[in-house]
Amino acid sequence: MSFVESEERRALRAAVAELGAKYGPSYYVEKAKTGQKTEELWAEAGRLGYLGVNVPEEYGGGGGGIGDLAAVCEELAAAGCPLLLMVVSPAICATIIARSGTADQKKEWLPRFADGSVTMAFAITEPDAGSNSHRITTTARQDGDGWVLSGQKTFISGVDEADAVLFVARTHDQKGNLRPSLFIVPTDAPGFTWTPISMEIVSPEKQFICHLDDVRLPYDALVGDEDGGLLQLFAGLNPERIMAAAMGAGIGRLALGKAVAYANERQVFRTPIGAHQGLAHPLATAKIELELARLMAQKAAWLYDEGDDAGAGEAANMAKYATAEAAIHCVDQAIQTHGGNGLTTEYGVGMLAGVVRLMRIAPVSREMILNFVAQHSLGLPKSY
Q1: Which of 144, 151, 299, 304 is the most buried (most CB within 10 A)?
Q2: Which segments of 266-381 does DSSP mark as H helices, in order?
Q3: How confident is the model at residue 172 (pLDDT cuts 50, 70, 90)?
Q4: What percent of the chain has pLDDT over 90?
């Protein structure tokens, strides 16, 4: 692993940053506050091939890895356009289908993931299960030559703009620990409904409760093996953590950039406020924390792309934890640097607080990451 990104990766970052600057924070916030979607940005990013950089070339993608997709996600977030569906559709769903899907599923879905013409949501969390996926109760039973799905999911992103949802379920007769089965459910399937959840976050992507009321699916809606095991599931969840870390890094960079620009311009006691160590040192500390977190995120992506799933799992969890903490620090210090202006709409800093605070909770909470590290990295007894 090199600590210097390849020339191709740097060129990709520069091109995506240019696209992000074309739209910028004002576009993103306007879409969020008016209830619209970032359709123009998504379509252009897909047309330019940025959403499909990790899709195999034989299906029209760039043939790269999750590190390339994470770079796209980070640069868009740093430009003020953190696209949550990037974490879900091309990272989780496309990766799982590329790894575990049938030849027909790959042919049907991957070219459209590659050009951004399709989006797929991902549903695992349930109201009564929370972080304990082994308690999920969404079930699938075979009926004739197909499946019938029943259950409920919560905090599912972007269902209203998705063509389908990849559901995690257990087969009807399965007991004990989860051996996940994965099903592609079209959003227009009879019996599939969803209810929006009101959130205190400025984002065009909304959250939903999904209801499956005896939804009938053909047999080939199943992705991978029946009772396929956790390795099949984590083929998508490790990229999710890596992408969440990339998004956090991008938002941290955005906040820090705003703070530094303001600190260089704002004068109160004859010199720019950035000359005072009371502001300069906290900003420098935030910069150090952010760069350390980005290194761990890049390590996680490299391990995943090298096929080291176990190593990637540890690094992805650590990266997600570190980047969330660093992004929170960057945003908090950016608000403090701006003073009262940090909470005005004009400067666009305060609205970042809710987004980065969520990163301590989703897609996996900091407490569950600490449990993972304590048990798997340190060898301590399982605590839950």
Answers
A1: 304
A2: 277-305, 309-338, 352-358, 366-372
A3: confident
A4: 89
| Cα three-residue angle 347-264-4, rounded to 5 degrees | 90
Residue for token pair 């996680």 = 300
Q: If DSSP states are collapsed to H, E and C, what string results for 203-233? A: CCCCEEEEEEEEEEEEHHHEECCCCCCHHHH
Q: pLDDT-derived band of residue 129, with 50, 70 and 90 as boundaries? A: confident
Nearest-10 Cα torsion for 207, 212, 217, 222: 60
- Categorise residue 270: left if φ over 0, alpha if ψ from -120 to 50, beta otherwise: left
Q: What size, in residues, is the chain?
A: 384
CA distance 11 to 291: 20
Q: Can you tell me whether residue 80 is helix, strand or coil?
A: coil
Helix, strand, or coil (residue 149): strand
Strand, coil or helix: 261:
helix
Q: For a pLDDT cut of 70, what percent of the chain falls above it?
A: 98
- CB–CB of 157/121 below 8 Å? yes
pLDDT > 70? residue 227: no
Cβ–Cβ under 8 Å, residues 69 and 13:
no
- Token reading at 196: 């929006």
Residue 108, judged by CB atoms within 10 A of its CB (0-12, 13-18, 19+), counts as: middle
HSE-CB at 234 with a 13 A cutoff on CA atoms is: 18
- Phi and psi angles of residue 350, each rounded to the nearest 5 degrees, phi first: -60, -35
**CA neighbours closer than 13 Å in the CB half-sphere of residue 236:** 33
State the DSSP string of 28-52. HHHHHHTT---HHHHHHHHHTTSTT
| Strand partners of residue 244 | none
In angstroms, rounded to a whole number, what is the distance separating the alpha carbons of residues 234 and 217? 24
Cα distances from 67 to residues 6, 44, 371, in angstroms, run: 11, 21, 26
Helix (H, G, I), strand (E, B) or coil at 75: helix
Residue pair 353/332 in contact by the 8 Å Cβ criterion: yes
Mean pLDDT, range 161-182, rounded to an integer: 84
When the pLDDT of each residue in the chain is averaged and rounded to a whole number, the result is: 95
Is residue 372 very low, low, confident or very high in pLDDT (cuts 50, 70, 90)? Answer: very high
What is the structure's pLDDT at 229?
65
